[in-house]
Each structure stands twice: as structure tokens, then as C-alpha cells.
Design goal:
This protein is mostly beta strands. It contains 1 helix and 16 strands. A hairpin with a 3-residue loop joins strand 11 and strand 12.
Length: 208
């Protein structure tokens, strides 16, 4: 009996001390299968400043653990105090939504659907075609808990009037294939490890 109680207490401690994220995994037009698209992962209970794109705070609803509240503050230097002017949106676990954050302005007509989930200490993360990850500035090796990431599924293509962008992971290295009308395609690696971010007071990496 004592062993059972100790086991339960240890699991409670791990849950309390663990890092919780809200994930959005792409589902094309909210179909059953995970497919091509853009995915996101947000750390909870921490104010994130994205420069000109404003600030975000993500919290699990205290009254319903199946709901997540997103608070958006237009002030890029906001402290995410809820007394500040903000736009609030609520998402429900396992529901599918049209979502789009920090999308490259070079891409035209992108409509993205994703299903929301809550994840404790995600551990292994499957490689994708492109992954942009933010870390705390003091995490100089970018190995501690991440703050946020967005990813493009492997092999995804985006378009604009005269260009096509293909993202794929080859031997754990992310590549962008840029094809411009009437010109040869350019295949280049876009990998960066732990460099200063332009979108806020953070470090970022671009990986698979």
C-alpha cells in the first residue's frame, strides 16, 4: 500500500513539474488523417513576444481542462497582463480549426487546418520538412524546453505568382527548393542552430 501511495505521489510531482504544450497538428480540411500542412506547438503559461507580430499567452482553462485560451496582445513588448487590451480565443481539445500564425508573406492562398491537443513533456519529436523553434535567450545550446515551434510537413509545397517553395528533410537536414518561373530551381539548406531571433528576445533554430 505504501509503495502504491509513493508511486502516485511521484507521478503527481512529475505532472506538476512537467512542461505543458498546446499542439496543433495539420489535418487537411479536418479529415481524420494527419496530412500535409503547417503544425504548431506553444508552451503554456509563458508570455511570448513576437516583435511586430505582437505577444501571446496560452493557458489551459482552469474551469475546463479540455479547453485552451489564447490571449493575443498587439503590443510587442506586452507582459501579457490580462488587464491589457487583448483578443481572446478558445480552443477545445481534439477539435479541428483553421489556424495560421507567423506564415511567410511570400506564400499565397494558404488555408491550414489543424487539430488541437495538450502534451506533457513531448520528448521525441518527429522530423518534418521545416521546423522553426524558439528558445530562451539564456539557453545558449538550445537544448532546454522550447517555447514555441512551427513546422511544415515533409514535402509540402507553397506557391505565389511566379514561384514554388518545396520543403523537405534529407538526412536530418532541412532543404528549401525554390523554383522561379523560367529559371532553374535552387536547392539550398536552410538549417540554423541556436541563433538570435529577429522576431523577439529569443534564440531560434531551423531544423527538420
Amino acid at each position: 500500500m505504501i509503495k502504491i501511495i509513493i508511486f502516485i505521489l511521484l507521478n503527481i510531482i512529475l505532472f506538476v513539474c512537467g512542461t505543458t504544450y498546446v499542439n496543433f497538428d495539420p489535418h487537411p480540411k479536418c479529415s481524420q488523417d494527419v496530412g500535409v500542412g503547417i503544425g504548431y506547438s506553444w508552451i503554456t503559461n509563458k508570455c511570448l513576444n513576437f516583435g511586430q507580430d505582437g505577444s501571446y499567452l496560452v493557458e489551459i482553462d482552469q474551469n475546463d481542462q479540455n479547453n485552451v485560451n489564447f490571449y493575443f496582445f498587439s503590443d510587442p513588448k506586452s507582459q501579457c497582463n490580462k488587464a491589457e487590451n487583448n483578443v481572446t480565443k478558445q480552443y477545445n481539445i481534439n477539435n479541428c480549426y483553421q489556424v495560421q500564425w507567423n506564415l511567410d508573406g511570400a506564400f499565397y492562398d494558404v488555408t491550414n487546418y489543424a487539430k488541437m491537443s495538450i502534451v506533457e513533456d513531448p520528448g521525441y519529436i518527429q522530423p518534418e520538412g521545416y521546423r522553426y523553434t524558439l528558445y530562451q535567450t539564456q539557453d545558449t545550446q538550445c537544448q532546454a524546453d522550447y517555447l514555441y515551434y512551427q513546422y511544415y510537413t515533409n514535402g509540402i509545397k507553397f506557391h505565389n505568382t511566379m514561384q514554388t517553395f518545396l520543403y523537405e528533410c534529407v538526412d536530418d537536414v532541412p532543404f528549401e527548393v525554390l523554383c522561379t518561373q523560367d529559371l532553374p530551381c535552387i536547392n539550398s539548406t536552410i538549417e540554423f542552430r541556436c541563433v538570435t531571433s529577429e522576431s523577439g528576445p529569443y534564440l531560434h533554430s531551423i531544423t527538420c
